[in-house]
Amino acid sequence: NKDLTHTIEFLKIISQEQRLKILCLLKNGEHCVCDIWQHLDMPQNLVSHHLKVLKEFGLIQSRKNGVKVLYRIDEHAVTQHTQLLNHFLIPYGN
After folding, report:
1. CB-CB contact of 72 with 36 (8 Å)
2. Helix H or strand E encompassing 32
3. Which residues form the HTH arsR-type domain (predicted)?
């Protein structure tokens, strides 16, 4: 089942502690890599790696602002993934 496979991949991605911390930070608005690694006390290269994974999966978006790249949560994508997860976990009729 394609939906189940996609949901499993979603859970793998967000189960990584640093990625979940990044998502929690981004839920409050846009941040550049330098803000994220300083706020979460993580190496810059590790933050960049996790941002790449999150972006490739479609959970975050980015935009250039001068020389900086700002990252934000893709609310539509996150909503779709959580609804799909609900589909598998919540019994019909509830």
Report:
1. no
2. strand 31-32
3. 1-92
Question: Is residue 94 assigned to a domain?
Answer: no
Distance CA(93)–CA(75), nearest Å, equals 26
**pTM exceeds cut of 0.90:** no
Low-confidence stretches of the chain (pLDDT < 70) are 92-94
Burial (CB count <10 Å: 0-12, 13-18, 19+), residue 3: exposed
Q: Is residue 10 part of a domain?
A: yes
Token pair belonging to 92: 């019909």
* Pair of tokens at residue 77: 């994508």
Q: Are 60 and 26 spatial neighbours (Cβ–Cβ below 8 Å)?
A: yes
| Helix/strand/coil percentages in the chain, nearest 5 | 65, 15, 20
CA of residue 16 relative to chain centroid, distance: 10
Condensed to tens digits (0 to 9), the pLDDT of residues 53-76 reads 999 999 999 999 999 999 999 999
